[in-house]
Design goal:
By secondary structure, this protein is mostly helical. Helix content is about 80%, strand content about 0%. It is built from 16 helices and two strands. The chain has a two-stranded antiparallel ribbon with strand order 1-2. β1 (about 100-105) and β2 (about 105) form a beta hairpin. The longest helix has 29 residues, at about 70-100. The chain is globular.
Length: about 375
Amino acid sequence: MLAYFQNVRPGIEQAISAILRENAPKLGAISPMGTQLAERLESYARSGKMIRGILVRLGYELCAAEAPDGAMDAVLDRAGAAMEFLQAGLLIHDDIMDRDVLRRGQTTVHAQYERDAAEACAADPAHHGISLGVCAGDVAFFLGFHALAALPVPPALQERARKVAAFSAQELCWVGVAQMQDVLNGARGIGANPDPAQILRVYRYKTGRYTFSLPLAVGAMLAGGGPAHIAALDQAGENLGVVFQLKDDELGIFGDSAQSGKRADSDIREDKKTLLRHFLFAAADAELRAQLERIFGSPAPGEAGLRAVREAMERTGARAKVREYMTCFAQEAAERIASLPPQTGPRAQAARDAFRDLFRYSVERNA
């Protein structure tokens, strides 16, 4: 992973643990399940790449006139931790909707609760796991918003913190609506066959904006960045977020599940309406289309089904077409960052260098 990210990550990890330590006594006083949930959320939140949390600091350092002092370091780590709690809630719910049992190389949260129920001989372990998984995701959301509402900023920056919390809540509303459209697109029988523009719109609001635009804008707001800074980061983040989702789609088919920590056939099983799928079906002849329609949406595509899809995506040029999209969106994001009013100092330059590294990583990553 990028050197900048490795340097920032420990502070966010510590903030995640600190927030859970502060809340665990009350959670545990309500029920022993609260103590268990705090432990599971800590493991879950700290096991990811923490891109969203780190981008808060990157957005700050791209816009701030001076490097953050010790007090602002704590604010940025806490704001980054809040992004990771919001991400945890979204992923926990996403795993339920996608019926995934593996995430980040671990059993998904709802599947852990299902396992607990099965070991206790509950009547309906699957429903039990889903119900508690929904609750766990909700708690993660509210921990994130509480962390944002309680950022330890000085009185002079209270208005900035208020704007950060309001902006974050608005963005998560948009994620929810885009997720609803994504679920509808994947529903066999009633699901749509969206065109590329519709697919990309879902990508922008389901993944792109909250993955990149949101944390970058949060950092810029905390730095007191002007409209030009915030607008450039917002658009660059949105484009880079689309690249990230397109790469996720590619890894969902061609990636190594041991590296990605997720089943390789998940998107095929759920018949996700990805851009890869769109270009594949658009280029398929009648015979190939009939074969693909038997594979996509199958509860168990298997190795043979996955291999057939991979070969077809290479043969039809669908994978190459999506890679062209990734390159174009990454280039546009780079141009947005290049247009930023420059800040002076080594921290600002390091942030710009990290952003350029992030472009390459987003296109070339293998997990």
